[in-house]
Amino acid sequence: MTLAFDPAKLTLPVRHHIGGQYVPAREEIAVTAPSSGVTLGAVPRADASVVDRAVEAARTALQTSGWGRAAPRDRLRALHRWADLLEEEAPALARLEAVCSSRPVSDTVAGDIPVTAEQIRFFAEFADKECDALAPTAEGSLGMITSEPHGVVGAITPWNFPISMAGWKLGPALAAGNAVVLKPSEMTPFSALYMAELSVRAGLPAGLINVVLGDGPDTGTAITGHPGIDKISFTGSTRAGAAIMENVARTGIKPMTLELGGKSPMIVFEDADLDLAAECLERGILPNAGQFCVAGSRMIVARGVADALAERLTERFNRHEPAATWDAQSGFCPIISEVQLGRIDSLVRAACEQGAEALCGAARFDREGSYYQPTILANPTPDNPAVTEEIFGPVATFQTFETEEEAIAMAAHPTYGLCSGIFTRDLARALRVSRQIEAGTVWINRYGRSRDHILPTGGWKASGLGKDLGREAYTANRRTKSVLAAI
């Protein structure tokens, strides 16, 4: 069976999914295929009344189903059934993802969907394994620390990995006993709707997952400021995260998990395996055309190996050819929109005007669709926009250093602290440097997340609050209560 498809023949869900059913509404927001620039259709923009309806459906589902009070293994089994169905429906789900996103259909079937199913099963297993605790108290009393679900979680996901990001939000929230009101990006809404439909088919209570479509200023603001939503989980830009914090503070305090922007450094020392480093540096910036928050967009290389590594990297960067996300064979991914491509190109041009040298790329591909060439910008100054700004495209800077102390200083960023990479054969140096880098994740002689879902991910500084993945993501979806009884 080929996964290739004709986007014009795909039936797209263009309605909200509330209370286990699709809800029609006036279609207002155009959805465009970045692989071709063709408008696929339009989706509704949920206003405050629609969000009210979704929150009420979520709360009703919790009350009538007893999901948060159910036997933990019942939640576990239901989530396993949902994960199984996501894998069974992978081709259909992947086409809904690929048609409007930057994700190739074959990569989504082979990677995004099975990893998402794994993560849902991973979080499901916490349901009957995380325990309340007895606390040491004075004789004649019993102290306990118990935990409960928050209730209704408001989740907002970005456009770059729609299925994966939905799984990050839904898996731990549901396993912990909550219901969810989810807003996917208005540019990539279709796969989240089908995930909600499949959850009902898998036997999860209708209304446990509600998907409302819309943009950030209207729909997102209504979600984050809603008094009936008990926790917020967001992945996106630092600017949007700051706006969410402001809205939550203004409308009512509630806990938040925010995974925000990054400008992650990859430090290559002189004793590194250069072939391995080149492979990892390529993999650190070019997947999904650099449109991922942990992208290793700042290459910081020992001067003695800089020329040799630059030669390896330019050869690797120049061999990529684009392909539509619905083609049978995966190719280099498109930029999500012409607006984003224009921003990328503007930043690259500004960087070159301010002294950076383009070793490769620095232009769009000459074909239909929104494709930008893999780009390396060498020798930028510390205040160059290519160094300071999160470009969110296939663009990396290439800087050199002489000493370990200089490398650490260059790795520091005034705004971001999401991820970092270190390449060296000296384990003592790797551990020493990892302790001095301000980032929520450090990879050594590799770059990028693994399928070790126990490892939490999240940023320092303006790269976020709290963690996704790991035990931390599950516990963030429950609130603790101290109980002290006289006996």
Describe the structure.
51% of the residues are buried. This protein is 38% helix and 21% strand. The chain is built from 15 helices and 22 strands. The chain has helices at residues 48-65, 72-88, 90-98, 105-124, 162-175, 190-201, 216-224, 238-251, 274-285, 303-318, 338-353, 385-388, 404-411, 427-436, 470-475, and strands at residues 16-18, 21-23, 27-32, 39-44, 133-135, 141-149, 152-156, 179-183, 209-211, 231-235, 256-259, 265-268, 298-302, 357-360, 375-378, 395-401, 416-417, 419-423, 441-444, 460-461, 464-465, 478-486. The protein has 2 domains: 7-260 and 464-486, Aldehyde Dehydrogenase, Chain A, domain 1 (3-Layer(aba) Sandwich), CATH 3.40.605; 265-453, Aldehyde Dehydrogenase, Chain A, domain 2, CATH 3.40.309. Helix 12 links the parallel strand 15 and strand 16 (395-401). The strands form 6 sheets. It has a 7-stranded mixed beta sheet with strand order 14-15-16-13-12-18-19, with helices on both faces. The protein is an alpha/beta fold and 487 residues long.
Summarize the structure.
The chain has helices at residues 48-65, 72-88, 90-98, 105-124, 162-175, 190-201, 216-224, 238-251, 274-285, 303-318, 338-353, 385-388, 404-411, 427-436, 470-475, and strands spanning 16-18, 21-23, 27-32, 39-44, 133-135, 141-149, 152-156, 179-183, 209-211, 231-235, 256-259, 265-268, 298-302, 357-360, 375-378, 395-401, 416-417, 419-423, 441-444, 460-461, 464-465, 478-486. The protein is an alpha/beta fold and 487 residues long.
